[in-house]
Amino acid sequence: MAYATTICGGWLSPVPGVNLGRALRLWFARPRAFRGLAANGMHADYSWRRPGQDYLDIYSRVQRR
Question: What tens digit of pLDDT does each residue of 38-65 get?
């Protein structure tokens, strides 16, 4: 797909509904693979803890200049 962006060996489309459609097709066609994908996604840290600290570090460096 021309609009696809590579994300961790897969792709994420900016077109609404495309990613949901792919997930649903995988869920019906390969339920075991879907469960593995879902479990992997649940282990990722999507919190602001790390990015928040990165912003604070940048702000501190800028303040010292």
Answer: 888 888 888 888 889 999 999 999 998 8
- The whole-angstrom separation of Cα 33 and Cα 27 is 8
* Structure confidence by residue, pLDDT tens digits, 7-39: 445 666 777 778 888 888 989 999 999 999 888
Number of C-alpha atoms within 13 angstroms, CB side, residue 50? 4
Supply 10's token pair: 């897969």
CA distance 47 to 61: 23
Helix (H, G, I), strand (E, B) or coil at 11: strand
Show contacts of 60-63: CB within 8 Å, 24+ apart.
none
The DSSP bridge partners found for residue 5 are 12
